[in-house]
Amino acid sequence: MPTFGEPELIHEAIPAGAEILELGSGAGRMTHRLLELGHAVTAVDNSAEMLARVQGATTIHAEIAGLELGRRFDCVLMASQLINVDDRERAAYLETCARHVPDDGVVLIQRYDPEWAADPTPTDVGRDGVRIRVLEPHREGRLLTATAEYEVAGQGWRHGPFAATILDDTEMEARLFASGLRLDRWIDERRTWLVASPLPDVSALYVEIAAAESLVAEHRLAWDAVAAAGIPAHVTVLFPFLDPDAIDRSVREALALIAARAQPFDVRFERVGRFPEVVWLAPDPVAPFAALTAAIAARWPDHPPYGGAFETVIHHLTVADGAPNETLVALEEHLAAGLPIGQRVVELTLATRRSGTWTVVEHIRSA
User: Fold this and answer.
1) Are strands 202-208 and 347-354 parallel, antiparallel or unpaired?
2) Closest Cα to residue 110, out of 213, 29, 199?
3) Is the alpha carbon torsion for 162, 165, 169, 172 positive or negative?
4) Which residues form the domain of 336?
């Protein structure tokens, strides 16, 4: 298989000589050209047979999910529409990207064209000696299924039927953000290639709502990006909070004192709320959550809720963010049928996001 200009596109988007971590390199279709363009490449793939065909690069036989090389690269590259896998696998892939890029590095990602995938039709195109057919494409919800056939130099290969989860611009940005990455720009006209950069490490304070999991878990995984990053159903108390490196003993003691002053309370969720692109559950009473937020924000005034973006903070449990309107409407009805739910609130959770990975630091008990 030849390249179709992708290495040149990548080369133009990153500094000359930038070292690249290529996730899912395959047999080196792009690797070899990136080497010619002056980049050192570490090629990762789960196929030893494919990696054996890669020449001139450092090769690592491994899965992308959970990869930990203990170092960072100027550029992390994830091409071949690997971003369009299912929600759990995508979250693991993005965590790997964020874990291996420095603060001044970039992540390059290729996705399926969401405009074509909105109403896909069979295609049969020839380019640079390759004939590519997309057969029986079908779209249902976010899922695209199809079969691809390739002909090169008299040889053929059939891929599929395969399934891909299509990501529009809004969801793409949300998934990146939940993994500690920020969308910087698109670098091709069809908006299938993006450049992202790392977000600063951060922490958050929230109340876990375990009682809601059975009702919302499936929907959050599909439509709330932080669910795929491992954050359970919750009501946010304060985000963004401190840099993780600033969380020392004195911070924990101050949080413990604030939590100790708050009495345990019972909360119920009896109503479904709606922002334009968000469906959420409303806690009742809301006053204890607001009091916690106010107390913590007063102690750390440089860290107002949501960075001070909203004049009024509405405490809520997000279920879906950025879904199509028809999905949100149907979800409102589904959730309402499952209410009320309730639980006793006895603790505050402190979690940190480092290099895109969320980790619970401490559960802070109320009095």
Assistant:
1) antiparallel
2) 29
3) negative
4) 202-365
SS3 of 54, please? coil
The CA-based angle 223-203-83, given to 5 degrees, is 35
Structure tokens given for 119: 């109403």
Model confidence, pTM: 0.84
Q: What is the CATH number of the domain that holds 294?
A: 3.90.1140.10
Sign of CA dihedral 59, 63, 64, 68: negative
Distance CA 113, CA 144 (A): 11
Q: Of 198, 221, 247, which marks where a domain is finished?
A: 198
Contact predicate 353/226, CB 8 Å: no
Residue 242 lies in a domain: yes
pLDDT tens column, 123-162? 999 988 899 999 999 999 889 999 999 999 889 999 999 9
Long-range contacts of range 131-136, CB-CB < 8 Å, 24 or more positions apart? 135/160, 136/161
Q: Using CA atoms of 4, 8, 9, 11 in order, give the dihedral in degrees to the nearest 10.
A: 150
Alpha helix segments (H runs only) across 300-359? 325-338
Beta carbons of 283 and 203 less than 8 angstroms apart: no
Cα 281 from Cα 209, distance rounded (Å): 11
